[in-house]
Amino acid sequence: MKLNSNDSLYAEELQAAYNFINHHDDFLVVSHVQPDGDAASSTVAIGWLLSQLGKKFTMINEGAIPSRLDFLWSANEIHNYTLAPPNRTFSTVICVDCADFSRTGKVQQLFTEDRVLLNIDHHPTNDSFGTVNLIKADAAATAEILFDLMNQFGIVWDAQIATALYTGILTDTGGFRYANTTPRVMEIVSLLLTYGVNGHQLADHLLEKMSMAQMLLLTKALSRLTFTDGNRVGYIYVTPEDMSETGAVNEDLEGLVNYPRNIEGVDVGIMFKQVSDVAVKVSLRSNEHVNVAEIAQSFGGGGHVRAAGCRIEGKLNDVINQVVERVRQQL
């Protein structure tokens, strides 16, 4: 599948990424903290590519890969930095799906001062922190960019790499329901299906099924559903006690923010997760009128126009008031 002829800068960046991978070895591959489907899929996709090229590599993340993504190629080989960081450093790094350098988390302590870094991402807020940057802000997922990168190498496709890329695109498009589902996205996934991807099984497993802990957590969160500004803003919050009482883990939070956003008449849905007495993680989703990436950026975070997030130091009620006020200003 060819690139658009007018996308010459992207073609140049693909070539630079190709050269970076060809000219180096012994890579550290990392995605963002609390990895989602696109982050985990992109990590293993790069790992798979490096294995095909006979390159040495280590895959790592701060925190665990969600258990529902265990089916991905070599997902069990992605090191959890929090549990067992490697006893060495790396001078050649590939970052995937990290909107900015801070999203690599504590893993960056493994980077040497003179490291060279390939930054592959699709977030419009990406600050081009790499030695080499491959960024396509209108790509639906980092996995979509990796589809193009794989084709630079003339690889022989198989079901494992096709499933990884399909998973990243499936999850970041909300099952092909979000506005980032372009004609090209559908062309790519239709081609991936020809390599043996079980699309209906992935959709059921990743988008439909809920753990009991997730259902219990959702029940608690929705009991606090609050609306402001003529019901144009809806938000929920989750506390550490909620996580403990339900037995939920971080991956059980995924998708909860969509519940307030999906209510008719709501422009912006927000989920606040209290991570300590003095820190709150914020997830924002919007429908048509609000650029939540700008809001997240104003608090040191980032993301997309319709989906973004940040971490804010402060007490839960204070953070809620700050963020809702910022959303109100956008409205």
Features:
331 residues; six-stranded parallel sheet; six-stranded mixed sheet; 11 helices; 12 strands
3D architecture notes:
With 331 residues, the protein is α/β, with parallel strands linked by helices. It has helices at 8-23, 37-52, 142-152, 159-172, 183-193, 199-208, 212-222, 240-246, 258-261, 292-298, 316-330; strands at residues 27-30, 57-61, 79-80, 90-96, 111-121, 132-135, 226-228, 233-238, 268-276, 279-286, 302-303, 307-313. The strands form two sheets. Strands 3-2-1-4-5-6 form a six-stranded parallel β-sheet. A six-stranded mixed β-sheet has the order 7-8-9-10-12-11, sandwiched between helices. Helix 2 links the parallel strand 1 (27-30) and strand 2. The radius of gyration is 19 Å and the shape is globular. The mean pLDDT is 94.
Summarize the structure.
This protein has 331 residues and is of the alpha/beta class. The protein is built from 11 helices and 12 strands. 37% of the residues lie in helices and 21% in strands.
Topology diagram in text:
Elements: H1 8-23, E1 27-30, H2 37-52, E2 57-61, E3 79-80, E4 90-96, E5 111-121, E6 132-135, H3 142-152, H4 159-172, H5 183-193, H6 199-208, H7 212-222, E7 226-228, E8 233-238, H8 240-246, H9 258-261, E9 268-276, E10 279-286, H10 292-298, E11 302-303, E12 307-313, H11 316-330
Parallel strand pairs: 1-2, 1-4, 2-3, 4-5, 5-6, 8-9
Antiparallel strand pairs: 7-8, 9-10, 10-12, 11-12
Helix pairs in contact: 2-3, 2-4, 3-4, 4-5, 4-6
